[in-house]
Amino acid sequence: MVNESIKIECIAGFAVITKDPAASASLYRDALGLPLENHDDYFFMDGFPGAKHFGVWPLAMAAQSCFGRDEWPEDIPEPTATMEFELADVAAVEAAVREMKEQGREFVHEARTEPWGQTVARFISPEGVLIGLSYAPWLHE
User: Fold this and answer.
1) Distance of alpha carbon 50 from its chain centroid, rounded?
2) DSSP string, 2-35
3) How many angstroms separate the CA atoms of 101 and 80, rounded?
4) Calpha distance 101→95 (Å, rounded)
5) What element of type H or E holds 63?
6) Largest alpha-carbon pair distance within the chain?
């Protein structure tokens, strides 16, 4: 049932919730290069291009995409959200993975092309979010 009185215009904000703001800020600001400002340990950016996709992704599908099976591995924390950062092209995704691995970041899987045409590499953030570095060709048309 569609609620006719609510008309969402965009995703106005998204924030990870963390017990370790310094570790999370280091990932997003230092490793990923996002222009975060700091206000009393709340790190944020405004006016950044918005979300191009919102979904409800079953854990079994995420596990299939990451590991090729329906069960999430017990030794990796189950994510409760996913966030993807779009890069310019496949080479940019591969370069970002190399750079982040050199900095010690462990990936759930390396850059690869999904059946739907998106190239993505994924890792788990300090707060347990499944992060994708991706290139989806249709977002660049």
Assistant:
1) 13
2) --TT----S--------S-HHHHHIIIIIIS---
3) 24
4) 10
5) helix 59-67
6) 50
Residue with tokens 């010690």: 104
Comparing CA positions, the residue from 97, 129, 128, 96 lying closest to residue 110 is 97
**Residue 29 tokens, joined:** 């600001």
Map out the domains of the chain with their CATH numbers: 55-140 (3.10.180.10)
pLDDT for residue 53: 81
Which whole number is the average pLDDT over 106-129? 94
Token couple for 112: 């690869």
User: What pLDDT digit, counting tens, does each position of 34-48 carry?
Assistant: 999 998 888 999 888
Residue type, 33: G
Read off the pTM: 0.84
Beta bridge pairs of residue 109 = 122
The mean pLDDT value for 29-33 works out to 93
